[in-house]
Specification:
Layout: E1 2-6, H1 21-31, H2 33-39, E2 50-59, E3 69-78, E4 82-91, E5 94-107, E6 112-113, H3 118-125
Antiparallel strand pairs: 1-3, 2-5, 3-4, 4-5, 5-6
Keywords: Hydrolase
GO molecular function: fatty acyl-CoA hydrolase activity
Pfam families: 4HBT_2
Length: 131
């Protein structure tokens, strides 16, 4: 499991005084960076052989400005050419959002998905959720 921390910024709040829902997907994407590094340790974006196929977020509780948010990230499932990343966001030790992202191993030259190589599959498997 990977852990990332975020400090909500004032401009990320909405008219209701809590963090806008669009911010959470950005935090979740940022929290996936350690997974991206499995594919390209130098974070060479042009060498990143994956695309995002799906994102889902459940907003469990309101998120407030001025209080740090911690995001836990890991792998839920590994398939032939795709894998599911799970996220859980906490503020004051309370679950405030959870979500998933489906990432697909992609061959940009052929413009289609391709099977995950064994070395990537093994690296991802180290972060599988066991609960």
């Amino acid at each position: 499991m990977f852990i990332s921390s975020f400090s909500p910024r004032f401009y990320e709040t909405d008219a209701f005084g809590h963090v806008n829902n669009t911010v959470v997907t950005g935090w979740f994407e940022t929290a996936r960076e350690p997974i991206f590094r499995i594919f390209t340790p130098e974070m060479d974006i042009k060498a990143l052989s994956m695309i995002l196929a799906r994102v889902e977020v459940d907003y469990v509780a309101q998120i407030y400005y001025g209080q740090e948010v911690t995001v836990h990230t890991g792998i839920e499932k590994i398939a032939n050419s795709s894998f599911v990343v799970w996220h859980e966001a906490f503020q004051n030790d309370k679950l405030v959002a959870k979500g998933k992202a489906v990432q697909v191993h992609f061959d940009f030259k052929l413009q289609k998905s391709s099977p995950l190589p064994d070395h990537l599959r093994a690296a991802l498997a180290q972060h599988l959720r066991t609960e």
